[in-house]
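Section 5: illustrative case.
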């Protein structure tokens, strides 16, 4: 197994660590620890792709697992936010639907003609924005938990705007994937 694929697997293994710190308050700084774990996991997303392209280590395994690891990390964070009451479930459900739809599309296209759908630029933009949105939400709530004087209503308003922007970007990138790969799907089977 090459280094980029190991970094992707590391990201997957960091997800439960993130969830534990994000959900359960061991210290007043728990949310900031969760932010650090999430940020480190997000950095592995940049590193694995960069190393794979630069060193010629791109594999079908990596093209398949990397976007799934991204989805799992992002969905874990967004579900934590819903559980904590920080964001509405509606934009999160939109994001979830798109992620399952694109994953199903990847499987259908792969099984049909062997093509592996790698993440496109719009999907990468969506992932980057959503990861930044998650980091901002964790930072703001972490500061609130430490007693920094930020109006809680303002934090929730920022959370709402950012998660809805992420939902719109996510839906738009899902439509892009459907349009781009519609010809690769045998609709009669």
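Designed sequence:
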């Amino acid at each position: 197994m090459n280094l980029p694929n190991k970094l992707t697997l590391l990201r997957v293994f960091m997800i439960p660590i993130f969830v534990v710190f994000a959900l359960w308050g061991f210290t007043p700084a728990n949310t900031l620890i969760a932010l650090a774990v999430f940020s480190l996991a997000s950095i592995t997303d940049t590193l694995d792709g960069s190393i794979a392209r630069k060193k010629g280590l791109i594999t079908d395994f990596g093209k398949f697992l990397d976007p799934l690891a991204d989805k799992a990390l992002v969905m874990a964070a967004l579900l934590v936010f819903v559980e904590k009451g920080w964001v509405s479930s509606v934009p999160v459900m939109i994001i979830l639907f798109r992620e399952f739809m694109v994953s199903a599309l990847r499987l259908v296209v792969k099984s049909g003609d062997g093509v592996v759908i790698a993440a496109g630029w719009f999907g990468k933009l969506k992932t980057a924005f959503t990861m930044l949105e998650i980091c901002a939400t964790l930072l703001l709530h972490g500061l609130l938990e430490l007693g920094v004087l930020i109006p809680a209503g303002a934090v929730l308003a920022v959370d709402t705007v950012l998660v809805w922007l992420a939902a719109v970007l996510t839906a738009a990138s899902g439509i892009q994937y459907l349009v781009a790969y519609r010809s690769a799907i045998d609709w009669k089977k």
